[in-house]
Design goal:
Shape: globular
Strand order of the largest sheet: 1-2-3
Radius of gyration: 13 Å
Strand content: 25-35%
Number of strands: 3
Distance between the termini: 51 Å
Structural class: alpha+beta
Number of domains: 1
Number of helices: 2
Oligomer: single chain
Amino acid sequence: MVYPKQPHYQVQVFKTAGGWGYDILNNDKLIIHQPTIPGQSGIVGFASQEQAHRVGDWVAEKMKQTQAMPTLTKEDLRQLGVKIP
C-alpha cells in the first residue's frame, strides 16, 4: 500500500526591489511565491525579513491545519505586525 507523503512546509524569505517576500515549499517543491504583501494593491514588499517570515510561517501553519490555501485578511496582517501601506 502506498501512503501519501505528509506535507512538510518550509518558508524561505528573499529580498526584492520593494522589500521582502517569501516562498513556501512543500517537500522541496515551490507552491507559493509571494514577493509582495498579499491582497495589497501595487508592488509593495514586506518592510522586513522578520515580517515576511512571520507571515510565511502563519500561511504554512494554516495550510498544515486545513490542507488548503489560506486567505490573509488585512486584520490577519495587522495581528502579525505588518504595517499596511
